[in-house]
Give the backbone structure.
Amino acid sequence: MTDAIAARTCIPCRRDAQPLTPQEIARDLAHLPDWALLDEGRRIERRYTFKTFAHALAFAVAVGAAAEAEDHHPDMGLGWGWATVSWQTHSIDGLHGNDLIMAARTDALYIAHR
């Protein structure tokens, strides 16, 4: 199901868009089990581990490229052997479908870079 989420199309988020409901978030997060729901349901985050800093950096660059392609950007942290990725839609102060799509795509990039 993660592949099905990743295959969805990101859509431009309008400022008047409504954040996902708790039920919509739960439906998709059930298929993204390593992601944590934070900030009262307004943000999701996952920490990834790697064998080296170079692997973590390559992953972060790949996530950045994917984010640029969709014009939807995460907050990221990076260190030796780890990277943290956090998705939220600041303009609606919550989660949008694009956040879950990009989380699934981030997981796919992790598989390619570990």
